[in-house]
Design goal:
The protein has 294 residues and is of the alpha/beta class. It has 2 domains: 184 residues, Flavodoxin domain (Rossmann fold); 64 residues, Alpha-Beta Plaits. 34% of the residues lie in helices and 17% in strands. Strand 3, helix 2 and strand 4 form a beta-alpha-beta unit. Helix 1 crosses helix 4 and helix 4 packs across helix 11.
Length: 294
């Protein structure tokens, strides 16, 4: 078996999940490649299983992801979807609806969709102790994903009409991204001219010309530029009060044993308890996953 994970990841949440999943596949002797969607022009046809991973943007898959998957014209493959977000609301239930329709139209076979909790890259920064607990729970969840997808276990999905309606209503966020792109600014007094934002923007939306940074209208609000800016020099328009700057050190946090201290976000974090309690239970492998998938 050979697996391809196609991922779009603004601030590396979805990429982290795919990389952890790749490690689990490798333990099963399953050859696995990860490709970032912004770098993919065409695909080889030698993959048995395709995973599509993205961060939820306003109850939907990013327009960029939908466009790239349409361009790639994937056909006659088994596939699954992994979506990530900083909350687990039912309102996110129809985020993959367009991808599902598109892939099935091209005679691909849907296996399952998985919603993986990861920390916010906008609104506010997650507490390190909460993030650590999420990452530890996700280790078990990702093992489960590897087991179910490698054994092609099917999970029926039901896109409820009300959630499809909400998804369509909130696609106005895409217009908001366009309008907000005119308000992005770089504080040149703080900027070190490292060009990280210019070089890493997935839509090539940022240019540096004549000692000025110019933001075009292709912003998808992935937050990569402002999140990873080493000098915290980028203003993200009308969302600036929600800006989160500085990466989470997942490799350290997933091993830490931090004690959570109660704070004003308790009621929000409490929403995660059912997810955490479910996935903190070790995933028990049965004989099927031990077979050689090479």
């Amino acid at each position: 078996m050979k697996v391809l994970l196609l991922v779009f990841s603004g601030t590396n949440n979805s990429f982290y999940v795919c990389n952890e999943l790749k490690k689990e596949y490798q333990k099963l002797n399953i050859e696995t490649d990860i490709l970032r969607l912004e770098n993919v022009k065409e695909l080889k046809d030698d993959y048995d299983l395709i995973g599509i991973s993205y961060p939820i943007h306003a109850f939907s898959a990013p327009k960029f992801v939908e466009k790239k998957i349409k361009e790639l014209k994937i056909k006659n493959k088994h596939y699954f979807i992994i979506k990530t977000s900083g909350e687990l609301y039912q309102l996110n239930s129809a985020s993959s609806y367009y991808l599902y329709k598109l892939m099935n139209k091209n005679k691909n076979i849907f296996l399952a969709e998985y919603h993986v909790l990861m920390p916010y890259n906008i609104i506010f920064r997650f507490d390190d102790a909460i993030t650590s607990r999420i990452l530890k729970a996700n280790r078990n969840f990702i093992k489960k994903i590897a087991y179910e997808t490698s054994n092609k276990r099917y999970k029926r999905i039901d896109f409820k009409t009300r959630y499809k309606l909400i998804r369509n209503i909130f696609k106005i966020q895409r217009l908001g991204a366009y309008l907000n792109s005119f308000l992005y600014k770089v504080n040149l007094d703080k900027c070190s001219k490292c060009m990280k934002c210019v070089n890493s923007c997935p839509t090539n939306n940022i240019k540096y010309e004549n000692n000025k940074f110019k933001f075009s209208t292709n912003c998808i609000m992935c937050m990569r530029c402002s999140f990873f800016c080493p000098e915290d020099a980028i203003r993200i328009g009308f969302l600036n009060s929600w800006k989160v700057n500085g990466k989470y050190d997942f490799e350290i946090l997933k091993h830490d044993n931090l004690q959570y201290e109660s704070n004003e976000r308790d009621s929000f974090y409490n929403n995660f308890l059912p997810y955490l309690e479910e996935h903190e239970e070790p995933f028990v492998l049965d004989y099927e996953i031990q077979k050689d998938h090479s």
